[in-house]
Amino acid sequence: MDFGKYSCRSLRWRLCYKLVSQSMLFLFFLCHAATGQIRYSVPEEMKRGSLIGNVALDLGIDLQRLRSGRARIVTGENIQYTELKTDKGILVVNERIDREQLCGDVTPCSFSFDLILENPMELHHVTIWIQDQNDNPPQVLYPVQTGGSVVAEMVPRSADVGYLVTKVVAVDVDSGQNAWLSYKLQKATDRALFEVGLQNGEIRTIRQVSDKDAVKQRLTVIVEDNGQPSRSATVIVNVAVADSFPEVLSEFTDFPHDKEYNDNLTFYLVLALAVVSFLFITCLVVIISVKIYRWRQSRILYHSNLPVIPYYPPRYSDTLGTGTLQHVYNYEVCRTTDSRKSDCKFGRAGSQNVLIMDPSSTGTMQRMQSEKSILDEPDSPLELH
Q: For 47-172, where are the alpha helices, taking DSSP H only?
């Protein structure tokens, strides 16, 4: 058992020694195989496919050697920002390069990779330096823009010249001169009362505050960077000239909203009014059209020459008359053996006759309800008593 343990340990040491030896030999070979290195400087935000440099010309490598040596780029990054065109021997942009995303606040910003060729092995180190571009505007940190609510800085009426009201704080994520910021007072309720520091963004009074100064003061400060072209940001500072908080509260409760908010509200009100007016006019036109259609239909029926045939439902009774008989009633006829000697001749047994009474006349008429029931003598008159 002990002999086996010592054998395993010796085997492990031999394997470790062999791996270390091979690694050292590989590193030594790589160090001697590295025959050159090149550097390029490119601006950020270059389009995909843009030319970075001609590696074949800069390293003195023939195009046939790049193809036969299966030249390729080896990098430890997840994103490969560059691509090697072996047919032309050039290096181009493969992915968008954002300096702020790649390096953050670190300056200068760069990344590197290795260009490897085989048969024989060659290793060339390539470094890409990223030049910052003014692609980000300044960001205002203070005062915080709260939108609907109003935040005001208080200035007592006893404030003297040079009183520090507040300080505008802004940053720019760009580097170098693109991150140099300057502050300017663009608009103010009273330009003779406040000023803004060009480099530090401090807002101070430039004269003595008096009782005649308005309580509500509105300052618009613009922050610009030093890039080409310059980018800027705007911040609004509300200042209250008062000695007590209740005075400030009473004055700032009706502080006017931003012009953009008022414009949006006006647009939605006009749109709602237009929609309601359109619906009202549409309903009015539909109602008038229906009225006109019904009126024309009634006029057509009134001027028509077709006779109007009244309809009486079965067993209809005349409510205007004084008689007890109904206008329409059915009766059954039966005949005797001597019926041919009577003045009236009736139809065959089982038939039904309908007697219609006209209130405007003094007599009545007889109508046969069934076509199969006919009088025995069609030329003989019908007498009714």
A: 55-59, 63-68, 99-103
DSSP 268: H
Could you give the CA distance from residue 35 to residue 58 in angstroms, rounded to a whole number? Answer: 12
Cβ atoms < 10 Å from Cβ of 61: 20
Cα 318 to Cα 33, 203, 312, 321, 363, distances in angstroms: 128, 103, 10, 6, 16
pLDDT tens-digit readout, 184-231:
999 999 999 999 999 999 999 999 998 888 889 999 999 999 998 899
| Rounded Cα gap, residues 183 and 221, in angstroms | 7
Tens of pLDDT, residue by residue over 88-112, are 999 999 999 999 999 988 888 999 9
CA distance 33 to 121: 6
Q: To the nearest whole percent, how much of the chain has pLDDT over 70? A: 64
Q: What angle do CA 266, 268, 274 make, to 5 degrees?
A: 105
Helix (H, G, I), strand (E, B) or coil at 250: helix
CA distance 78 to 102: 12
Amino acid at position 295, single letter: W
DSSP for 10-42, please give it: HHHHHHHHHHHHHHHHHHHHHHHHEEEEEEEEE
Q: How far apart are CA 33 and CA 27, in angstroms?
A: 10
Beta bridge partner(s), residue 341 = none
Residue 66's contacts (CB-CB under 8 Å, 6 or more residues apart) are 56, 86, 89, 117
Our measurement of the distance from residue 11's CA atom to the centroid of its chain's CA atoms, rounded to an integer in Å, reads 68
What's the pTM? 0.54
d(CA 189, CA 101): 41
Under a CB-based contact definition with an 8 Å cutoff, are residues 154 and 62 in contact?
A: no
Q: For residue 341, give the DSSP letter.
A: G
Phi-psi region of 104 (alpha: psi -120 to 50; beta: other; left: phi over 0): left
